[in-house]
Every structure is written in structure tokens, then in C-alpha cells.
Design brief:
The protein is mainly alpha-helical. It is built from 22 helices and no strands.
């Protein structure tokens, strides 16, 4: 067996290991193949896939770049490279990748679909919708594009159009739990709680361990005042996946509303343990600590939330609340105003009615802030 044959043999073994999800073994075999034949583009691609499955995205990206070095027209390498960037949450880079793939092959429906997904993540829904439309023009049965188009439409407040898109996806693939879940999320966002609950229940009928549906079912139950059922849903989600950061966070919110502040903080700590970059958990943890009178610790926790997501309006609002507790009124009003600037509809109304801010009601700076926005509305 000559060198090239040995490389091909190792490559085939690497593919077998990749298909059996033995990713570390696959990488070792592929590295051995590439040592013998460095221009084996398929081996570089498979190596990229293996590292991607291990969430070692930098090594994965390097592998796909090497594959493209040997064949810049390798469409599959471009596709997988874009998916790795997307999983890495480098959405702008992923978008540029799929745009390049479309330049190489205009009729690549998956490239249009994934370009739409990147734009959706970047909150550029108006640009995402035509991408999903193009995907569906090229492949009318690609139900995922209908579903994600529905999400984009719902995000823009076009609920009826969104529901029509979800319905088309479900008509093609009625037994996929994720589609019912996605439709339920749109209804949940629109505060159509009973309809959302029906969709989450349908998802769970199809897939009883669909963790996300249990999680959002708990949110709906809480809104409907069915507290025991709400908490049971969060517990079920954690039974399915004990490392689900959002389930721990939602569990903490429930406990905080019940006045169980210490237990709520423990839940937020678990959420952060599962994902140290969960900015909502850091923020919620800070709010619960503030309610417990541990204001310095609260501010530190909220500051961490804002380090992770500097435009997190709720964190700004809660930071203002904390400064109010410390009687640092100018700072309190300043942070509350920052929250209002980011989301006037939500935080201006809260500032007017929230009992947490009663400590500020007589403060001249706070009164001036509310007068300013009242004048703007007039």
C-alpha cells in the first residue's frame, strides 16, 4: 500500500468514526491521513465537523479554511464553515460566509435559509424574510424555512402572517414537536396564553421530553395563575436536562415571586453555574439580593449582567432600583432613564407604577424625568 492509499484508508476510517460519533478517534485518524496527504480536502472537512461536534470551534474553523485553501469552490466546506461560525455565535461572520456561498451558487437553498437565520439572530427580520422566501422558492417543501419566516414575522408584530407561515410548516411536517413549539412561542410573545399552551401541549404529545416546551409551558402557567403547575413544569424541564440554564433562571423567578428570595438566589446560582454568560440570571440574582437587603452584592451581580450585555435594559432599571435603596437618587434616576431610553414602552410605564420605586416618588430628579416623558407624549 503506497502513501496515497494509506491516506485514503485512514480517511475512510476517520469517516466511520465520525459517523459513529467517536469524534476524538476520528480526529486522530484524520490527522494521520493529512500527515501523509496534506491536500486531502475531504479529510479537512471531516476534521472540521469532528471539532465542531466537540464545540472546539477555532480548530473546526481552521480545518474548513484549510479545505478551502485546496478547493475554494468546495460548497460543502463553505456551508459547514458558516454553520460553525453560527454555532460559535459569530453571526456577522456567519452571514458573510453564507453570502459568499450564495455568490458561488445562487440556487443553494440551504445557504439562503442559513443567511436568513443569521439575520434573524442579528434582529434584522426585514432582511431575513426575503432570504426565507428565496429558500422556499428554490425548495417549496423546506418546512424549516416556513417556521423561521414565521418567527421573523411574529417578531415584527405580524402575528397573523407568522401564524400562516407556522401553519404551512406544520402542514408539511405535522409530527415535529419543534414546529408546534415555535408556533407556541409566537403566541406566547403575543400574550395569547391559552393558544400558546395548546401548542406546547401538542409538542409534548409528540415528544414528551421536549424540554423547551416544558419550560415555556411553565411560563404560561405562571401567567395564568396556575402556580403549582408552573413550578412542576420547570422541575420537569430540569429533570430532562439538569444543565438547562433558562430552566434554573425561570425557577428562580418563580421562587422570587413567591417571596422565597434565598431559594431564588440558589436557583440563579445554578443557572450561572450552567452558563456563566446568562446575563438574565445575573440580573435576576441581583434583584433578589436587593430584596434581601444585600444591595452591594446586588449591584455587583447586576454589573456582571451589564458586562455581558451592555444594552440589557432590565439590568439598568434594577441598578437604578438598587441605587434608590442606597438613597443615591441621582444615580438611581440616571440608570432608570437609560432603561427607558432603550425600551420606553415597558420601562416608562414601570417607572410610573412600580412600587419598588416608591422611594423615588418625592425626588425632584425623578419627578422631572417623568414630566419630561409626559411632555414628549403630549
Amino acid at each position: 500500500m503506497n502513501t496515497e492509499e494509506k491516506a485514503e484508508s485512514l480517511f475512510r476510517q476517520g469517516i466511520e468514526s465520525l459517523e459513529s460519533r467517536e469524534f476524538t478517534k476520528a480526529i486522530e485518524l484524520l490527522d494521520n491521513a493529512l500527515e501523509l496527504k496534506p491536500d486531502l480536502g475531504g479529510a479537512w472537512c471531516c476534521r472540521g465537523l469532528a471539532f465542531g461536534h466537540l464545540e472546539q470551534y477555532e480548530e473546526s474553523l481552521t480545518s474548513f479554511d484549510q479545505a478551502l485553501k485546496y478547493n475554494v469552490l468546495d460548497l460543502q466546506a463553505w456551508l459547514n464553515r458558516g454553520l460553525v461560525l453560527y454555532q460559535w455565535q459569530r453571526f456577522e461572520d456567519s452571514l458573510a460566509n453564507f453570502t459568499q456561498l450564495i455568490k458561488l451558487e445562487h440556487f443553494h437553498y440551504e445557504a439562503w435559509f442559513h443567511k436568513g437565520n443569521c439575520l434573524l439572530e442579528l434582529k434584522r427580520e426585514l432582511e431575513a424574510i426575503p432570504c426565507f422566501d428565496k429558500c422556499l422558492e428554490l425548495n417549496p417543501d423546506y418546512y424549516k424555512a416556513y417556521s423561521n419566516r414565521g418567527q421573523a414575522q411574529a417578531n415584527l408584530g405580524r402575528l397573523k402572517a407568522g401564524l400562516r407561515s407556522f401553519d404551512k410548516a406544520i402542514a408539511i411536517q405535522p409530527d415535529e414537536a419543534q414546529l408546534w413549539y415555535n408556533r407556541g412561542c409566537a403566541l406566547l410573545f403575543a400574550k395569547q396564553d391559552e393558544e400558546a399552551l395548546s401548542d406546547f401541549d401538542k409538542a409534548l404529545e409528540i415528544e414528551p421530553n421536549h424540554m423547551e416546551s416544558w419550560l415555556n409551558r411553565g411560563v404560561v402557567m405562571d401567567r395564568l395563575g396556575r402556580k403549582d403547575e408552573s413550578f412542576a413544569c420547570f422541575e420537569k424541564a430540569l429533570e430532562i436536562n439538569p444543565l438547562e440554564t433558562h430552566a434554573w433562571n425561570n425557577r428562580g423567578v418563580f421562587l422570587r415571586k413567591e417571596g422565597e428570595w434565598k431559594k431564588a438566589v440558589a436557583s440563579y446560582d445554578k443557572a450561572i453555574e450552567c452558563d456563566p454568560n446568562n446575563h438574565e440570571a445575573w440580573d435576576n440574582r441581583g434583584y433578589a439580593l436587593a430584596l434581601m437587603g444585600k444591595v452591594n452584592l446586588a449591584i455587583a451581580s447586576i454589573n456582571r449582567s451589564l458586562e455581558i450585555k451592555p444594552d440589557h435594559a432590565n439590568g439598568m432599571y434594577n441598578k437604578g432600583f438598587c441605587y434608590g435603596l442606597q438613597k443615591k437618587m441621582k444615580l438611581a434616576v440616571s440608570w432608570i432613564e437609560e432603561a427607558i431610553k432603550l425600551n420606553q414602552e415597558k420601562y416608562l410605564e414601570l417607572a410610573r407604577t412600580d412600587e419598588d420605586l416608591d422611594i423615588l416618588r418625592r425626588n425632584k430628579h425623578f419627578k422631572s424625568l417623568l414630566r419630561k416623558y409626559k411632555a414628549v407624549e403630549s
